[in-house]
Amino acid sequence: MTCHNCRLEMVKAGFFGKCRVQRWKCQECAKRFSEPQQKPFGADVRLPREKVCMILNCLVEGNSVRGTARLCDVEKRTVLNILTLAGEACERLFEKQVRNVRVHDLELDEVWTYVGCHQKRLTPERIERGMVGDAYTFIGLERTSKLVVAWHLGKRDRVNTEDFISKIRWATAPGWFDVSTDAFQPYETAIDAGLYDRANYSQVVKLFSNRLDRVSESYSPARFVCVQKDAVSGRPDLDRAGTSHVERKNGTLRQWCKRLTRLTYAFSKKWENLKAALALHFAHYNFCRVHGSLRITPAMAAGITDRVWAIEDLISTL
Predict the structure, then answer these.
(1) What is the mean pLDDT of the chain?
(2) Per-residue buried b or exposed e for 161-193, using 16+ beta carbons within 10 Å of the residue's own CB
(3) If we measure between CA atoms, which residue out of 285, 243, 275 comes closest to residue 62?
(4) 147, 141 Cβ separation under 8 angstroms
(5) Residue 258 in contact with residue 266, Cβ under 8 Å?
(6) Is the per-residue pLDDT at 4 higher than 80?
(7) Taking 70 as the threshold, does the pLDDT of residue 318 lie above it?
(8) Per DSSP, what are the bridge partners of residue 41?
(9) CA distances (Å), 88 to each of 41, 190, 194, 236, 312, in order?
(10) H helices within the chain, ranges in order?
C-alpha cells in the first residue's frame, strides 16, 4: 500500500477493530491508514457488511420494512435505502447474467397489485401525491428450469406488454421454443412482432363456474370447469401448453415479497420501492434460493452458474 502523503511504500501495523481491518504505517511521515474495504453495491454504505446481509435476508424472506427495521435494529429509512440500492444493482445483475438462455417451454403471466391506492380510488389529488393505482408484474418462467427469464413492472396494457416481450427476446437465445399465455389480447400482437422467428405460441384459457347458486364470497375460488387450449402461431405442442407453473410462481412471489401480500398494510406507497423489491426477489429466486423440486437453484438448472449463491455472494457480485 502507498502512502497518500509521501507516495512511499508503507509497512503493516497490525489490525484495527472487531473486523480486524489491516492497518498500514508510513515510515517517513508516521501516518497510519486502514486498508480500503469494498463497499456493498459500490455505494457509500456505512453499515457493516453483516448488517446489510441481515437486512436483505429479512426482506427476501417476506418481512415488511418496519419488521426488518425492528429485527435489524436500524431505522426504517435505512432499510428503504438499502432496498433501493440492492434493487438497482439486482436489475443490472439480471440483465448481465440472464442473457442468451436456451429455453424450451416458456409461460407468461401477470400479477396484480397497487401502489398508493386502488385504481378506482385514484383521483387527480392522489396522482399529484405520487399514487399510481394498479400495477402489474409480468413474469416469464421457463417450465423445466423454473428460471425467471424476464420480468417487467407496469400497467396491464399494450405498451408494457411489448416492453415485456422485448425483454424476453433479449434474455433468450435464438431458436424455436413454445410460449403459453392466458387470453390477454395484447400478447398476440406483441409476440407476433417481437418473437415472430422464435415462438410457437398457444393460449390457455381456464373456465370457471359463475357460482350464481351460491352466496357471494369474495375470496372463495370458483369451481373449475375445464381448460381450453388454442394454437395462435407456429406449431406449439398443445399437450404441454399450460400456465400452471408460472401461476405457482405468482404464489411464491406473494408469499416471499411482503409488498404483494393481500389484505395487509404492506402495499407499496412508491413505485420505485416496489420495483426495487421485485428486482431483489427475482435475483434471489434465480441465484440463491434452492428450488424444492429441482434441489438446485433455477440459475444452476439453466446452466447460468454452477453453485448456489448466498446473499454475501450476491452483494459481492453487485
Answers:
(1) 89
(2) bbbbbbbbeebbeeeebbbbbbebebbbebbee
(3) 285
(4) yes
(5) yes
(6) no
(7) no
(8) none
(9) 9, 27, 26, 36, 17
(10) 49-60, 65-72, 76-97, 124-128, 158-171, 186-194, 244-256, 271-287, 298-301, 311-317
Closest by Cα among 141, 166, 103 to 303: 103
- Give the burial class of 261: count Cβ atoms within 10 A of its Cβ; 0-12 exposed, 13-18 middle, 19 or more buried: middle
Contact between residue 88 and residue 276 where contact means Cβ atoms under 8 Å apart = yes
Instruction: Characterise 62 by phi-psi region: left (phi > 0), alpha (psi -120 to 50), beta (else).
Output: left
Q: How many CB atoms lie within 10 A of CB 155?
A: 14
Does the structure show a pLDDT above 60 at 212?
A: no
Cell numbers representing residue 144 in the block: 423445466
Residue-wise pLDDT tens digits, 238-283 = 999 999 999 999 999 999 999 999 888 889 999 999 999 999 999 9
- Given a cut of 60, is residue 215 above it in pLDDT? no
Residue 63 neighbours by CB under 8 Å, 6+ apart: 71, 258
- DSSP, collapsed to helix, strand or coil, labels residue 177 as strand
